[in-house]
Amino acid sequence: MSGVFGVVSKEDCVKDLFYGTDYHSHLGTEYGGMAVLGEEFSRQIHNISQSQFKSKFFEDFKHMKGNKGIGVISSLDEQPIYIKSKFGPFCLVSCGLIENLEELAKDLLDKGVSFSETSSKTVNETELIAKLITQGNNIIDGIEKMFDAIKGSCSLLLLNKDGIYAVRDRLGYTPLAVGKRDDSWAVASETSAFPNLGFEVVKFIKPAEIILINEDGMMQKTKGADTNQICAFLWIYTGFPASSYEGVNVEMVRERCGRLLAKQDKDIEVDVISGVPDSGIAHALGYAMESKKPYRRPLVKYTPGYGRSYTPPSQETRDLIAKMKLIPIKEIIEGNRIIVCEDSIVRGTQLKNFTIKKLWDGGAKEVHVRPACPPLMFPCIFNLSTRTTHELAARRAIRALEGKDLEDTSEYIDYNSKKYNKMVEWIAKDLGVTTLRYQTIDNIVKAIGLPKERLCLYCWTGECPRQGSSRRANKIEKKASAKKKTRAK
Ligand code: SF4
């Protein structure tokens, strides 16, 4: 996925932009970029797949000047895009996924529009969005026309002489919030970017809403919708603990998830509650609070050098890092019955080989794994993760139990069914754990506290009422596999 940040100030904004963008580093792995408007535009883009945003941009940010700017951490294409248009020059950053990208690019090419940016796909997605916007009669009309044309999800920040237009995608899968500090305004995917820069959240932007921030304040350009389907996985795993979406804090949701996991576990006795660092920790804290058993750290992450934004080039290196980053503490492990809270189980291989194995090797008496969400059954339809159906632990279990892949997995999704229990037993055996109990979908909804119809739960249920698309999931899967192959080469 990607994360965006923008800031407008009466003074130079580059320092705020640098740190605010850097606070989105957990959301992307490929490119970082910043664009600033002072007397003129200046823009920098770097590949951050092998090093961190801060180190790549540290020199640039000292030479950039301006009082308004936008930044991005992207898993897809190079951004920000700079365009000279009939509305004047502007820069653009975006996050989301456009399903009909090739079709739209062809239409524009047929109309004589050219594309210049490099991309992992046919065209650079952000450039396509910029070119679609320029088809309108003005910026707002262009954004609305772009929304009408695309299938999929797109939130964006557009920087020009007016200020920053902050636009959340029509269905609201990705969040955007506005912050204020004295006369300065900021907009971010993650509200955790605000407090250390002195900003306070003043608004969660609604789906399809267009907001303009500039030296004069915040102006609503279009109203937006009251309904949305925000990604539930943000609260479970991808979001930063200090962030809030729709006013609901991530850490608090994870604690509630942990409490609900503990409530399902009245029948087992354990000694230690732990979480897989970092995203399993808050779930474990909630579990410990509810069960009144001690939260302890049998495995500690060696944080320096093992940030989530670092993407090693080969599976071998990724495995080596997974092995090296968690260090066991034998004094806490030995002889104990341990609960291990994890945000989710994707493939399960790293959990099995580099977490559970260390607990057994350290002399654990029992190891009980508690994922904070149900078995993952589908890849994200909006590019918010890169997993593919084939590699998911639940799908491997179904393949092993049925002797083939299934199109219809509804019986395995129903946690009251025998098939569900068989699947969980298979995964538990494969992981080599004493017990495995997943969170239920109802408990996720309860922990988040928003109405179910306002959440995207597609990863677990395959239900996507407004988009209805296993077809889209297949397409995305093919793209993700192609990208992985390219990277492997
Ligand atoms: S499919 Fe999953 S990761 Fe993608 S938006 Fe929906 S809940 Fe989030």
What does this structure look like?
By secondary structure, the protein is α+β, with helices and mostly antiparallel strands. 34% of the residues lie in helices and 24% in strands. The chain is built from 17 helices and 23 strands. The chain has helices spanning 14-22, 53-63, 101-110, 125-133, 139-149, 233-238, 250-263, 281-291, 315-325, 330-333, 349-361, 393-402, 410-413, 418-431, 441-448, 458-461, 470-488, and strands at residues 3-8, 31-37, 41-47, 68-74, 81-85, 88-98, 152-160, 163-167, 177-181, 184-188, 200-204, 210-214, 217-222, 230-231, 244-245, 248-249, 272-275, 299-301, 326-328, 337-342, 366-371, 435-436, 455-456. Helix 9 packs parallel to helix 11. The longest helix is centred in the last third of the chain and has 19 residues, at 470-488. Residues 468-489 have low confidence and may be disordered. Bound molecules: iron/sulfur cluster (SF4). Iron/sulfur cluster binds next to helix 16.
Strand order of the largest sheet: 3-2-4-1-10-9-11
Radius of gyration: 23 Å
Task: Give the beta-strand count.
Answer: 23
Poorly predicted parts = 468-489
Arithmetic mean of pLDDT? 90
Anisotropy-based shape: globular
Largest sheet: 7 strands, antiparallel
Helix fraction by DSSP (H/I, runs of at least 4) = 25-40%
Determine the N-to-C terminus distance. Answer: 22 Å
SS-based class = alpha+beta
What is the number of helical segments per DSSP (H or I, 4+ residues)? 17
β content, as a range? Answer: 15-25%
